[in-house]
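Why do we care about 3D structure at all? Because function follows from shape, and shape follows, mostly, from sequence. That is the central idea of this module. The next example makes it concrete: a single protein chain, its amino acid sequence, and then its structure expressed as tokens.
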Amino acid sequence: MLKLFSAICAAFVSFGTAAVWAQDIKGDAKAGEGIAAMCIGCHGIKGYQASFPEVYRVPMISGQSAKYIVAALNAYKKGDRKHPTMRAISESLTDQNMADLAAFYSEHGLPGGKSVAPKDSKPASPAVAALLAKANCASCHGANFSAPIDPSYPKIGGQHADYLFVALKAYKKDANQIVGRNNAIMSGFAKQYTHAELKQIANYLAALEGDLKVVPQSRFR
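And the structure:
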């Protein structure tokens, strides 16, 4: 079963990476810093909360993988992720803008701009370990859930629990025109769990140490 999952996962990575990064645009972190002015009002304030489709802390994106940031922005732009504010922002960005912004945030707040080696995972309870094994989450998201097997997958170790819970629930609403996320792989995984189980997973992942953080801008400190 795990071999079959790995094969499916590898095929998805190959297809997704080729589709999103066919031209492999090189990002300029300095240029991205200027573009980030439109992002800091939400992602540059510790504890800032979004209110669609429910109240939750906006995700930490400083230290996130550059290719994942581009993939996420494209998903909002195409409507595969339903969120009115993020849809509007992503539609205003060119492919180069996205690459520059991603280059900036992937280095933002990291020592020397480099990812640190994932620390040993906090042991999961037997119940949570069984939930994680059910979809073999670590096989894609990597050691301590902070070293994904492909950079177009997100680092999720240490991410806000309430955001993770909302994001995971969104994959269960893939056919909804107003809310949800369209991703065949993640939808298949998320639908295996109850909301209570997804919350357990989210709480465990949030307790891990990773690269993700909020770096307050000077005007918000």
